[in-house]
Design goal:
11 strands, alpha/beta, nine-stranded mixed sheet, 12 helices, Rossmann fold, single chain, two-stranded antiparallel ribbon
């Protein structure tokens, strides 16, 4: 029996087939899938910023493929180093990214290592300054400049391995503030934006709103995709930024894709490999799995323009790896 469909009915059928096709594609995408035989060997280098007489240590996680790969930068929190959060660097490299972990002199581990235990918190608070933020911002620019030079230098081990048209920026805590600063935040006091146009997507772990500023004015002009991750117990050890205030960044973003994950019972250390001073709750092993899945899908969607990754990220994918009490929202312009 021959069935005749009206134009409207044909449109509905075609729409259904497209949705079904998209769902099938999303179902085949797995941001956690990696080659179990891959074990990244970090490469430690130093970027020399001659103009500032400043050396910036970096740690690079390289994928096995020597073809040009997207680059993801990571900025550590107050008192950290390039050795922090290797679970992210290793996974991103296994997924085909060149992960570059920066170390910022003046707000790195040197702040507390040689200081008596009783004085360490004060030393960390002193280093949590606008001056160090500006140093960090310039570190990001300097590292990207050096990566461009190394990539073009045929005698360098990194020659031709970096796709610097596809750069993502990320960071935790003070590193999240650094990420916000170079990825579109507006600074009224500075009088201009500190954005690096080479950055195409940004991921802030434990984000922060400006101290005493208007989040809408600070983040309203952001024009690239941002993903934010925090926890219901994400209180900073140094500046005591409370979990509620970390949620003020998301509603201030407009005009570009935005995503927000809030991990249930997760403390500030959830984005690191070990507990931090002041931790009280037991660590949930699934949290790292969620962080890796969502961050990878985000990079795949917005650095590689992977349609399957975008379908997974904007569909049921995130909920499939999250715990029931984790919170997830996103908005697409």
């Amino acid at each position: 029996m021959r069935i005749l469909l009206s134009l409207a009915e044909r449109g509905l059928v075609l729409g259904f087939l497209l949705v079904a096709s998209g769902a099938a594609q999303a179902g085949s995408y797995d941001p956690l899938a990696v080659d179990p035989a891959f074990h990244p060997v970090p490469k430690d280098l130093t970027v020399q910023d001659a103009a500032r007489h400043r050396d910036i240590p970096i740690r690079i996680y390289l994928p096995t493929n020597s073809a040009p790969a997207p680059v993801v930068l990571f900025s550590h929190g107050q008192g950290g180093s390039r050795e922090g959060s290797p679970f992210m660097g290793g996974h991103w490299a296994a997924r085909g990214y060149v992960a570059v972990f920066l170390q910022h002199p003046g707000s790195d581990e040197s702040v507390w290592k040689a200081v008596p235990v009783a004085q360490r918190k004060q030393a960390m608070e002193t280093a949590d300054s606008a001056k160090n933020l500006m140093l960090r911002v310039r570190d990001v620019h300097a590292v990207l400049n050096q990566l461009e030079r190394w990539n073009a230098d045929k005698t360098n081990d990194l020659a031709g391995r970096l796709d610097l048209e596809k750069v993502g920026m990320s960071g935790h805590s003070f590193g999240a503030v650094t990420t916000e600063a170079v990825s579109g935040e507006t600074f009224p006091v500075v009088g201009h934006r500190l954005t690096d146009p080479r950055i195409k997507a940004a991921l802030a772990f434990s984000p922060s709103v400006p101290k005493g500023g208007d989040p809408a004015k600070a983040f309203g002009a952001v024009s690239i995709p941002w993903m934010l991750m925090t926890g219901t117990k994400d209180e900073g050890f140094i500046n005591k930024t409370d979990p509620k205030s970390r949620l003020g960044v998301y509603p201030a973003l407009r005009g570009a894709p935005k995503y927000e994950l809030v991990l249930f019972n997760a403390e500030h250390s959830v984005f690191t490999d070990r507990p931090l001073p002041g931790d009280r709750a037991a660590r949930n092993p699934n949290h790292h799995r969620v962080i890796l899945a969502l961050s990878t899908a985000f990079w795949d969607a917005y650095l590689r323009n992977d349609a399957e990754a975008r379908a997974w990220l904007n569909g049921a994918g995130p909920r499939a790896v999250m715990d029931a009490q984790d919170q997830w929202q996103f908005s697409l312009p």
